[in-house]
Every structure is written in C-alpha cells, then in structure tokens.
Amino acid sequence: MAPQVTRPDLTFNVAQLLREDIGGRRSHEFAEPSLTLDGTLALRDVRGIVRLTRTASGVLADARATGVVDLECIRCLTAVAEVLTITFRDEFHARVEVNTGVPLPPPDEDDPFFISENHMLDLGEAIREYALIAMPMRPLCKPDCLGLCASCGVDRNIAPCTCQEQRGDDRFAALRALLDE
Predict the structure, then answer these.
(1) β-pairing, 42-54 with 25-36?
(2) In the sheet where 42-54 sits, what is the strand order?
(3) Strands 113-115 and 79-94
(4) Residues 152 and 140 in one domain
(5) Domain boundaries, position 102
(6) pLDDT score of 153
(7) Statement to judge: residues 178 and 161 lie in one domain
(8) pTM given for the model
(9) In terms of domains, do 42 and 107 share one?
C-alpha cells in the first residue's frame, strides 16, 4: 500500500484499522518540527514513515525516522548537530474494544505503549524513547578532536597549547625512566 499524505504531527487515528482483521495495514509518512527528548534536548526536523499492522491486542508500529539533536563534543565542548536515525518495531495496545467501548485488560509486558480511549496512536513517546537510546554516548565534533588543554583550557583544535607538558607524580620517576630508555 502506498504511503498516505505527510502528517504534521505524530498522532494517528487507528479506529478503522482496529475494526479490520489481524494483519490489516496502513502506512503513513510524518513530519514534526521539534520533539522534546528531555529537559534540555530536543529532536528537530523529525521525518519518517510508519507501517501500522493490526494485531490481536492492538497495532504493531514499524517506524523509521530521522531527526537532528544538538549536543556538545565531549572533548572540546563545541556544538555538534548529530543526525539520528531511529528504527523501531513496537506494539501499541488498545485500552478499549473499538466496537463496544468495553475496557480491555492490560498487557502482561512491562512499560507498554497504549492507544488512547479515542483510538489515537501517538508515536511521539516511542520516538522520544528510541531517540534517547540512539544518541551517541560520547558525541565528537570530529573523530580526531584534540579537545581542551587540561591546564589552560585552550581548544587545541583551534590553537596549539603553550603549557609545558606535565611530568606527573615524582613517585613514578623510576617507571618513567624505564619508558625513556
């Protein structure tokens, strides 16, 4: 099935899909200008596609999205615009039966995603969680970043450091002499 029109947000009405037999599918493209990841980080220019498949307890979402998050290089503290690719497959469970409105029992899994009582599936929280997992643990502005000088704080990518090399603890002088030989 061809993707439907690009959506301005991450919420999808799945009421009709929930009325179909298991295996029924829909595909949607989506775009979101910004998605808050935590108190200080935001994923911007989020774009992607999701395939929604009817399951016995709700809807399986197969999603692929990209976005940009602004981080700091761990060596020199320079701003880094990191492009994240987020791919996930997760099930969203229905809270109520679509035809009768009868509440459904909660799933057995820990921390599941849910479809709202109005049959709206919101991908925002899933994308947020998977984006946090996809972020690099040690972001770098470039692979060979020289970082900041520990003594004077100069960015060694921009200018050479004029500090004298620290010789370290004198108690290790005998070991240092072995390295110099």
Answers:
(1) antiparallel
(2) 25-36, 42-54, 58-72, 79-94, 113-115
(3) parallel
(4) no
(5) 11-145
(6) 87
(7) yes
(8) 0.80
(9) yes
83 shares its domain with 154: no
Q: How far apart are CA 141 and CA 77, in angstroms?
A: 9
Q: What is the pLDDT of residue 39?
A: 85
Q: What is the mean pLDDT of each run of 10 residues along the chain (181 residues)?
A: 56 94 95 92 96 95 97 94 96 90 84 92 95 95 92 89 69 81 73
- Per residue in 66-82, is it b (16+ CB within 10 Å) or e — as a string? ebebebebebbebebee
Does 30 share its domain with 57? yes
156 in the same domain as 116: no
HEC per residue, 134-152: HCCCCCCCCCCCCCECCCC
The reported pLDDT for the residue numbered 58 is: 93
Structural domains in the chain (count): 2
